[in-house]
Amino acid sequence: MERNIVVIIMVLTILCGCSFIPKYKKPAMPVEKKFPDKGIYKNISFDNETNAPKIKWQDFIKDPKLKEVVKLALKNNRDLRLAILNVEQARALYGIKAAELYPSLYATSGIEKQRIPEDISFTKKAYTEKRYSVNFGLAEWEIDFFGKIRSFKKEALEKFLAAKENRRAAQITLITEVSRAYLTLCADMENLKIAKELLRTAEENFELVKSQYDAGVATEIDLNRARTEVESIKVNVVKLKQLINLDINTLNFLVGTHIEEKLLPKGLPEKNPFEEVKPGISSYVLLNRPDVMAAEHKLKASYARIGAARAAFFPSISLTSTIGTVSDELSNLFKGSARTWNLNLKGALPVFDPRIWAAYKLSKVQRKIVLTQYEKTIQNAFKEVMDRLTIKATIDEQIEAQKKLVRSLERTYELSIKRYKQGIDSYFSVLYAKRDLLQAKQALTNLIMSKYANRIALYAALGGGGD
């Protein structure tokens, strides 16, 4: 009989192959199949396939200090640590659901003693009844004839895969945010240098006007204007110092630990800190972004939940079985005559349960919600890439125009000095020319930083940095 029980369990396990999960069909992309290459985008050199996902972040970031800062962030950032823990949690939940497909075996042993009073004793005498037992068997095991447990297992698997993609997305976001904060710090430090130089120029101008005012040549209005310019630039200098400290605070927060001063930038990087990113013409690259892949896994999980909701309409069958020995004497416990077995097969069919229909309708609505979220994720990814391509297509032209303006102002400054030395113009023209030049250099610094920040953002938008 014990052999028959084992055979029954094996047959039931094999028969558990039915599934009501709807067949998954990949949704069509709710965006254009190609990125535009006309108009302002004709300045961009598109390849058939982007190189962003193939470039490891260690190769993409060329600035050695920034690379070390990013390494620290990947090691200490709490958001990324939470994303990694979420993956472990999802893996454990998947393990639980997968284990429900198989029977749970257990072994028990016990000793039971009971006093039988003389009133109910067959011998009309009180006595103590003893029972020794050893059992090995199945806990109540739901046999997955109609795929409900398999559907839950599939849902847990897809959620686990979504968590893995979310971890990759968290890493990409972290690398992008750290790089952007680092670049902002570079720009503010460079602008502080320029602001200090502007302050020296304004102070020279004020001293010149003051000497003329004392001599009765300049008016009080001229003196107040010069003083106003000095104080205005001082406010800007203090504000930039404040911004630099805020930038460092942001960087420390993103990294998750205090950054040593030797890793902080001193100003504008001498070289481009990032590798060149070549965009591909096809927008299907967006499907490989971790956030899009995570959204698709969640969509597949919603299909599995529909399968579980459908399976709930069918009978649930459970099996409990034990094999063991029972005896009133411990010495006879393992003799053949003491063997015992138990087999309990139960089935339950929902005849009337409105909750099942409500759960089925809910699963279908949830699939529509997740589908909409998936499409929205793709649209958002497409917009991110388009925004970065728009800046990429125009930023070089802006920088070149600003460089021409700087060169023109440098020439104006040189001519102002010559005219001052020749006695044609006053020294005011020299100071004003220098002020305009320094302000133009500040604008150029900000444009260069915007170009660098856009490159890391485009790298992330095309799915790079998740390795």
Descriptive account of the structure:
The protein is elongated. The protein has a four-stranded antiparallel beta sheet, with helices on one face. The chain has 467 residues and is of the alpha+beta class. The longest helix has 68 residues, at 354-421. The protein is built from nine helices and four strands, in the order ααααββαααββαα.
Number of strands: 4
Structural class: alpha+beta
User: Residue ranges: pLDDT <50 for 5 or more in a row?
Assistant: none
What series of H and E elements makes up the topology?
Answer: HHHHEEHHHEEHH
How much of the polypeptide forms β-strand, as a percent range?
A: 5-15%
**DSSP summary: helix tally:** 9
Cα Rg: 38 Å
- Report the CATH C-level class of the largest domain: Mainly Alpha
Q: How many structural domains?
A: 2
Query: How does the overall form come out from the CA principal axes?
Result: elongated
Mean pLDDT: 87
At the third CATH level, what is the topology name of the largest domain? Outer membrane efflux proteins (OEP)
Q: How does CATH name the architecture of the largest domain?
A: Up-down Bundle
Termini Cα gap: 56 Å
- Helical content stands at 55-70%
Largest beta sheet: strand ordering: 1-2-3-4
Coiled coil: 192-243
Keywords: Coiled coil, Lipoprotein, Membrane, Palmitate, Transmembrane, Transmembrane beta strand
InterPro entries: MdtP/NodT-like, OMP_efflux
Membrane topology: Lipid-anchor
